[in-house]
Specification:
7 strands; 24% strand; Peroxisomal Thiolase, Chain A, domain 1; alpha/beta; 7-stranded mixed beta sheet; 240 residues
Amino acid sequence: MIYFNIDQWQAWAPGIQSHDDWARWSAAPWLPPLSAAQPDVAFLPSLQRRRLSRLARMAFAVAWPLAETHSALPLVFVSRHGDTQRTFALLDDLAQQEPLSPTQFSLSVHNASIGLWSILRGDTSEMTALAAEGDGLEHGLLEAALLLEAGAPEVLLVIAEDSPPDAYAPWIRDVPFPYALGLRLTPGRDWQLSLSPCAADPSQHAAWPHALNLLRTLSRQQVHCQQQWKSRLWTWQCQR
C-alpha cells in the first residue's frame, strides 16, 4: 500500500485538451478522428521545438504547466512503446541502406524526452524513464512514490503514447489514440494504491489504457477505480 496526493493534473489528446474537454470525454468516451494534430509548445524556443517528436511534444505539453513555477522537480516518464514513429523511420532508412542521422538516433532512445526536458529547463533533478507493460502507469506511480519517500517534496509523473506506424498495427493494439497525462504528486494520504494478485483473464483487461481510465476517475471526481493487467489487480482509492 502506498499513499500520495495528486496535487494537479494535465492531459492532452487530439481535440481533447482542457479539463472541461476531458470531463465531456470521460462522461461518454469516444475515439477522436485520426489526426496529425500536435500540442502547442510555444513556450519553447522555435529551434528546440523542431527537434521534438509528437510524443515528446505531448509529454512537454502536459508537464510544463505543472512545473513552470518550480525550478527543480524530479520526473518519472512512462511510455510502453516509446517514439515508434522515429524508430520506424530509422529502421526504414536501414532497410533502404541509407545513412542514419546521428541526431535522429540520439532522439529515438527511450530517455531522450527527459534528457531534453532537463536541458531546456536547466533541471538536474533525478529523472527516470520507464518502459513497462499495460500497467506502466502504476509502475511509474511506484517509482514516484519512492522519490517522495526519499524526501522529494513533489514529483512529476508523465505517461505518454503516440499512435504507432501502420506496420505495427498487428502488434500494438493498446494505443487507441495519441494521449499524454501529467500528474504532480506530493506526500499525503488523499490517495492510496494497492496491489493484489488475481487470476489472469484477458477478458478483464480495461477497455481503455490505464492512464485514460484514471483520467476518467479524476474528471468524474470518483474515489475508486480498479485496473487489472494479467495477474495484477491495482486498486486506486481516494480517501477524501
